[in-house]
Structures are given as C-alpha cells and as structure tokens.
Design brief:
This protein is of the alpha/beta class. The protein is built from 13 helices and 13 strands. It folds into two domains: 114 residues, Enolase-like, domain 1; 220 residues, Enolase-like C-terminal domain (TIM Barrel, Alpha-Beta Barrel). It has a seven-stranded parallel beta sheet. A four-stranded antiparallel beta sheet has the order 3-2-1-13. The protein has a two-stranded antiparallel ribbon with strand order 4-12. β9, α9 and β10 form a beta-alpha-beta unit. The longest helix has 19 residues. It is globular and about 60 Å long.
C-alpha cells in the first residue's frame, strides 16, 4: 500500500442543543478529519480532540501541529504494509493518542476499502445491530433534564447516562428514578469531578441501582478509584484513566474498575481498543463504547467496535440527530433502540460531498511520496 498523501480538514458542525459536562459546554463541534489517499483507495479518520485540553491533555490545534511536525513525516519515510504498522511507527512519540488514532483510522479505512473488507469484520464483530445509549448533559434545572430523558426514552434509547458534578448528582438521579422507575438502564458520569473526600456522598448513589459510576476521580488516581470501589456498591467504570491496554491491565489488577469505557481516540486507535476489549474479556470484565460527539464517520467505526462480543453494555452510540441536524454522512437512524452495524468496505460510509464542502473551514494537503 503506497500512501500518496494526507489531507487535514476542519469542519464546523452546529449541535442541536448545548452539551454540558463537568469540564465545559459545547455548542458546536470543530472536528478535525484526516483523509488518507493511497494508490488504491482513500480512507477517513476523525480526531476526537476538543478545542481546549479540558477532557484530556490533547487539543485540536496541538493535534494539527503534531500531525504536521511528527506523525506524517514519520509515516512518509516508510512503505506501509497496512494500518497495523502505524502504532509501532509512531511509538517513539509520547502521548498524542487522539492524533495517532485519527491517522490509523484513516489508513485502516483506505486499506479495508481497497480490499473490500468492513471495519466490523476486521475488528471481529459478532453482531449486526448494537443497542444505543444516550449521554445527557448537565442542565440548569431538574424539570428540564426530566423532559430531555423522557424524550430520549420515547425515541427508544435503551440506556440513559447522566453527566454529574458536585451540586448536580444525588437529587438528579433520585428525580430520574422516581419519574421513570427502576427498570430504566441508568448510569452516571463524573468526568473526574470528585475526590476521595466525596466517598460518603457518592455512596448515596448505591440506593439507585445504577449500572455504574464513570470516572469519579482524577485520571491519575488509580489507587483512589480502587479505594472508592471498596466503599461503594455501585460498580466503578474508568474512562479517562484508561489510555492503553497496559493501563487497563493495571487498573483491573488493582481493583480500580469493574467495567471499562473504551474510547478508541483516547487509547490511540481501534486496534488498541480491540486489545483492551480482548484483555477485559479474558478477565470477565464488561466493556462499552464511549462517545466523543463524533460525526457519522467516527460513529460508523464506533458502531463496528461496539459489535464485538465483550461489549455487553449499551454504549454512547446514538443516532445522528442526538447531536446534529445535519451529519457529514448519511444520517445514522435508530430503529427499536438499535443501530445497524455498517457492512460495506471500510467504514461503510463516506462524507456527503456537498455537506462536507459547506461545513469545511480549513484544509491542508500534505504529500507523502518518499
């Protein structure tokens, strides 16, 4: 496979409504796309960085710089036998997993399109449909949140995830349980907003039979999560702390997590995501696919990943209209609370050219011939 060039492209996608988490509010999504052009096909990757380093250390301008300055020059110097080589070639560069993941995704998409194989087949999918969960942001009042949850349940979502932070937690969960009952699959996500001093407070969540509490403490605090896990009945799930199969193995060994959220961008790509899935499966630990408000491109790959056997909990794989009135691809439409796993070559979807052109704010072509 000869990599002829890489196009970097930024698109601005307005969100249907503001999405607030403990680390900030998004009203539009500035997405960095990577298009890999080989002598046989082209493939798309999506970088899941945010504009500022508030979810992780990475941010979009930094990813663009990293791609230009280090990642793409490193790939330009070799003959790529396939996407499986990308991770190893980029290993000398510390961190920047989201930027690395976007390039690996684009190269893998191009490789699979050329060979007529799907992402789902390549990763080891065993399902043709995946159940959809929805992530509900922090709002200014509980009645508004209850209306939003009501709407999502009416649309057919099979799991509700509530973003929480100090001051927006126990009462909110209680209100949702009281309104919708105990049968609704419910979990909460703190995005590192608490400390171990909040353990007694968080233990109040045990009364609500939650699927899990996601990343209550700081990213580096693996031991704190292990201690918290001994104090709560609610299962602890790690997100930000899991950056590789190695960190996942350590967290499992220490008892810091009993469920893992796998976000391919956060762990350096879909191939590493599969390794974490395999590790968790060997430990009998359930995993689910987290979301980063992706366009239809990243969503396609996430749906393929979520079709692997160990993904036994519904992920944040929502329909396009959860976040976007207009998606870059044909819209992902939910049926009976599920999305169909794409079966076509590569991602099985591509951007709609007119929409892509309309939403593009910047492009740069980087030739890769050596």
């Amino acid at each position: 496979m000869k990599l002829e060039g890489i196009e970097l492209r930024r698109v601005a996608m307005p969100l249907v409504s503001p999405f607030r988490t403990s680390f900030g509010t998004q009203t539009a999504k500035d997405i960095l796309l990577v298009r890999a052009v080989t002598d046989e096909a082209e493939g798309w990757g999506e970088c899941v960085t945010l504009p500022d380093p508030v979810y992780s250390a990475e941010y979009t301008e930094g990813a663009v710089d990293m791609l230009r300055r280090n990642i793409l020059p490193a790939l330009a110097e070799v003959d790529l036998a396939g996407a499986h080589m990308v991770g190893e070639l980029l290993a000398p560069f510390k961190g920047h997993r989201m930027a690395k993941a976007a390039v690996e995704m684009a190269v893998l998409d191009a490789e699979l399109r050329a060979e007529g194989r799907s992402f789902a087949r390549e990763l080891g999918a065993v399902r043709t449909q995946v159940p959809c969960g929805v992530s509900v942001g922090i709002m200014d009042e509980i009645p508004r949140l209850l209306d939003a949850v009501d709407g999502y349940l009416a649309e057919g979502y099979v799991r509700i995830k509530l973003k929480i932070e100090p001051g927006w937690d126990i009462d909110v969960v209680r209100a949702v349980r009281e309104r919708f009952g105990d049968d609704v699959g419910l979990q909460v996500d703190a995005n590192t907003a608490y400390t171990l001093r909040d353990a007694r407070h968080l233990a109040q969540l045990d009364a609500f039979d939650l699927l899990l509490i996601e990343q209550p403490l700081e990213e580096e605090d693996i031991l704190g999560h292990a201690e918290l896990a001994r104090m709560l009945r609610t299962p602890i799930c790690l997100d930000e702390s899991i950056t590789s199969a190695q960190t996942a193995a350590q967290a499992l060994t220490l008892g810091a997590t009993s469920v893992i959220n796998i976000k391919p961008g956060r762990v350096g790509g879909y191939l590493e995501a599969r390794r974490i899935h395999d590790l968790a499966a060997a430990h009998g630990v359930p995993v689910w696919c987290g979301g980063m408000v992706e366009s239809g491109l990243g969503r396609a790959a996430n749906i393929a990943l979520a079709a692997l056997p160990g993904f036994v909990l519904p992920g944040d794989v929502s329909a396009s209209d959860r976040f976007y009135r207009t998606d870059l691809t044909e819209p992902w439409v939910m049926r009976d609370g599920h999305l169909d796993v794409p079966q076509g070559p590569g991602l099985g979807v591509a951007p709609v050219p007119e929409i892509l052109d309309e939403l593009t704010t910047w492009t740069e072509w980087i030739p890769m011939g050596h």
